[in-house]
From TrEMBL:
Record's keyword annotation contains Cell inner membrane: no
Pfam family, one: Redoxin
Protein name, as recorded: Glutathione-dependent peroxiredoxin
Keyword Transport tagged: no
Record domain Thioredoxin: where: 2-168
EC number: 1.11.1.27
SUPFAM superfamilies the record matches: Thioredoxin-like
Organism: Roseateles oligotrophus
Length: 169
């Protein structure tokens, strides 16, 4: 399992954006994790699934609400990672008005999640292999903080905890 001090594993995530800008065109865009984290401070949080109760009602909205404060604390970008396809993540981002605040990153085949060692098997609940709920602060691709939730909990991976960690560094 990934731990503090490790480099984020290499891999590719997918992002769907509605408006062209910078290097992102409309439609699915492959994001090379190593290249996209180089030279940046990233608040990355991951969760079991798009449109699920805790994720939609608390986790993502908390990061959207704290986006400006996190940026003021030195965070360049906020990433939400979930084992869903890029179109679902794009629709979820639109539904939550995340554009410009939180980048909604799809890990469709769970390859990135497997590389972190932070998988969650929800096969018995009909959801297959997913990501555990966690957050981490990355500086130049290195894990500076890592907050992994206990099963069924939402206590340490929230935006308020991340803001305190980003401010303290």
């Amino acid at each position: 399992m990934l731990k503090i001090g490790d480099q984020i594993p290499p891999g590719t995530l997918q992002e769907f954006v509605d408006v062209e800008g910078g290097v992102c065109s409309v439609g699915p865009n492959a994001i090379d994790v190593s290249a996209a984290t180089a030279g940046k401070t990233i608040a990355l949080f991951a969760l079991p699934g798009a449109f699920t109760p805790t994720c939609s009602a608390q986790h993502v909205p908390g990061y959207i609400a704290q986006a400006e404060a996190l940026k003021a604390a030195g965070v360049d970008e906020i990433w939400c990672v979930s084992v869903n396809d890029v179109f679902v993540m794009g629709a979820w981002g639109r539904d939550l008005a995340a554009s410009g605040k939180v980048r909604m990153m799809a890990d469709g085949s769970a390859d990135f999640t497997k590389a972190t060692g932070l998988t969650l098997d929800l096969t018995a609940r009909g959801m297959g292999l997913r990501s555990q709920r966690y957050s981490m602060l990355l500086v130049n691709g290195q894990v500076k903080t890592l907050n992994v939730e206990a099963a069924g909990k939402f206590e340490v991976s929230d935006a308020t905890t991340m803001l305190a960690q980003a401010t303290a560094r």
